[in-house]
């Protein structure tokens, strides 16, 4: 006889491998397959009439429902992809945009009884005595946990992040299955191989499953930005392997600013995000590595509020100076020196011959935001870069196949690409060059 509690837990996070595999397999593979093929033909120059680029809203809802219900690795992967949607052609992305954005902040909650059980296991049977108030209704959902609003015993408003039981098992199962379905999601990350993204998620998941590690990361950021007039990182109040309690902060999520913000709000949010991204390695020797709009908010006092520190890159020596050197060489058109620097860092596949001018032509558009005092990040610009890299008949595509992304650069590359994706979603115009000159080692040297 099955305990009714098992049904409740399965509802919160299906754990049996067969059940989770069936859920993932229920995704609209036919429609997604046509999308990938259709977009590929569009990128190679075929007219819209020759391409079946129709994605139904129903398929998008199914994607959200499956990934959102599974949570774990599936939802985490959906969140990672959602920041890249600015690069997807509008006629293809429209039905999926809302569904992917939902993944940044929405998922079915686990039952209150289950939440209480986790809190008792992690904070002790008298866990309620630690709180003056505790809301059983979750205020937000994350990929492997959900957040409750509460009042700590000393009167501070706090956010209580509770990990879903079975999250570890589910995360590993999802990532194994998503490896097999990577082609389904390729359309959302143009010009990039999805498999390394999944491999990186797999490598970091054990760290993210231990909330004590997340708490340590957050303490590092909170200390580095304590009293800062531009960035607010809530302080950690208490932590355990599957529960973390932090100060509660309230602001306007970047997802809302993307949807309905004023030009001023968009530009300011973009500026603050860029400032945070480039200054963190210098100030905290850490890099926030989960860039999606649900993790950032514009506070009433004008600061950028930052949450969710489960994924963090530790940079004890700060950002690598060679990144700044490469950016500067590309900006200055020093093709030969640029190729030499890339070879030195392992960006060029062994045994390949490349024309320095082709390499410069490949990278130059990426440093275009640094060529002017202010740069306007738009979806159109992101789509143009995606089309350029994905055009199999173009030189940039051939050049890209000879380049390699070294493992030690993968995280920095992904986080920077994610931040740029948010800037494009924001449609922000910012003075990025001055920010990079101030914070990025090697750029102004």
TrEMBL record:
Record SUPFAM superfamilies: Protein kinase-like (PK-like)
UniProt KW Transcription regulation keyword: no
Annotated ABC1 atypical kinase-like domain residues: 102-317
Keyword annotations from UniProtKB, A to Z: ATP-binding, Nucleotide-binding, Transferase
Gene Ontology MF terms: ATP binding; transferase activity
Entries under InterPro entries matching the protein: ABC1_dom (IPR004147), ADCK3_dom (IPR034646), Atypical_kinase_ADCK (IPR051409), Kinase-like_dom_sf (IPR011009)
UniProt xrefs under PANTHER family: COENZYME Q8 (PTHR43851:SF3), PTHR43851
Family designation: Belongs to the protein kinase superfamily. ADCK protein kinase family.
Protein name listed in UniProt: ABC transporter ATP-binding protein
The organism of origin for this protein: Amycolatopsis albispora
């Amino acid at each position: 006889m099955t305990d009714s509690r098992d049904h409740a837990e399965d509802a919160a996070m299906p754990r049996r491998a067969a059940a989770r595999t069936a859920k993932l397999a229920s995704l609209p593979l036919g429609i997604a397959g046509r999308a990938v093929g259709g977009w590929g033909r569009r990128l190679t120059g075929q007219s819209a009439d020759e391409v079946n680029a129709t994605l139904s809203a129903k398929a998008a809802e199914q994607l959200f429902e499956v990934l959102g219900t599974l949570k774990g690795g599936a939802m985490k992967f959906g969140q990672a992809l959602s920041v890249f949607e600015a690069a997807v052609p509008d006629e293809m992305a429209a039905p999926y945009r809302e569904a992917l954005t939902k993944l940044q902040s929405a998922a079915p909650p686990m039952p209150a009884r289950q939440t209480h059980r986790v809190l008792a296991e992690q904070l002790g049977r008298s866990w309620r005595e630690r709180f003056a108030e505790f809301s059983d209704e979750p205020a937000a959902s994350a990929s492997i946990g959900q957040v409750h609003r509460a009042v700590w015993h000393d009167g501070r408003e706090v956010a209580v992040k509770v990990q879903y039981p079975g999250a570890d098992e589910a995360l590993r199962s999802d990532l194994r299955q998503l490896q097999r379905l990577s082609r389904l999601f390729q359309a959302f990350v143009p010009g990039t191989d999805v498999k390394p993204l999944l491999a990186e998620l797999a490598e970091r998941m054990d760290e993210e499953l231990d909330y004590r590690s997340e708490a340590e990361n957050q303490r590092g950021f909170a200390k580095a930005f304590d009293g800062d007039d531009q960035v607010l990182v809530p302080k950690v109040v208490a932590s355990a392997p599957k529960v973390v309690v932090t100060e509660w902060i309230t602001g306007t999520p970047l997802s809302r600013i993307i949807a309905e913000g004023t030009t001023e709000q968009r530009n300011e949010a973009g500026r603050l995000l860029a400032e945070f991204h480039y200054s963190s390695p210098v100030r905290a020797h850490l890099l926030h590595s989960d860039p999606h709009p649900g993790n950032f908010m514009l506070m009433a006092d004008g600061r950028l509020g930052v949450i969710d520190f489960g994924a963090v890159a530790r940079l004890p020596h700060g950002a690598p100076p060679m990144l700044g050197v490469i950016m500067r060489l590309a900006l200055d058109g020093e093709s030969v020196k640029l190729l030499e620097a890339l070879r030195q860092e392992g960006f060029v596949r062994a045994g390949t011959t490349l024309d320095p001018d082709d390499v410069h032509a490949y990278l130059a558009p990426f440093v275009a935001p640094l060529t002017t005092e202010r740069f306007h990040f738009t979806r159109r610009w992101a789509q143009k870069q995606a089309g350029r890299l994905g055009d199999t008949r173009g030189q940039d595509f051939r050049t890209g196949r000879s380049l390699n992304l070294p493992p030690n650069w993968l995280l920095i590359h992904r986080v920077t690409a994610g931040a740029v994706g948010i800037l494009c979603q924001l449609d922000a115009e910012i003075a990025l060059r001055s920010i990079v000159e101030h914070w990025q080692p090697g750029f102004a040297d």
